[in-house]
Amino acid sequence: MKLFVRMYLCVLLLLTASLSFAEYYTVSSSFENAMSRQMDDTLRQHQIVKYALRSNLLTMQRNSAATQETI
After folding, report:
1. What is the DSSP code (8-state) at residue 71?
2. Euclidean distance between CA atoms 29 and 69, whole angstroms
3. Angstrom distance (rounded) from CA 67 to CA 57
4. Is residue 1's pLDDT more than 80?
5. 23 vs 1, 26, 27, 33, CA distance in Å?
6. How far does Cα 58 stand from its chain's mean position?
7. Which pTM value belongs to this model?
8. Which pLDDT tens digit goes with each residue over 13-38?
9. From the DSSP assignment, how many helices (H) and strands (E) are in the chain?
10. What is each CA distance from 13 to 3, 9, 28, 53, 57, in whole angstroms?
11. Where are the alpha helices (H) located in the chain, listed in sequence order?
């Protein structure tokens, strides 16, 4: 009976350790992928805002120049 209990506990410990490692790896990989995706999305959004602001500034400069020419 003692041998069975020891073997059971060893197998249980081994299974618990391997599942814990697999869970850690899965969560870590998922977090890295989510972080990478979020950084890419944020960079794209930053580029869009930057181009929109640049476009608005150029439009304002052109309108200002056109207004001054008519005066």
Report:
1. -
2. 60
3. 15
4. no
5. 33, 5, 6, 15
6. 33
7. 0.64
8. 999 999 999 999 999 999 999 999 99
9. 1, 0
10. 15, 6, 22, 59, 65
11. 2-70
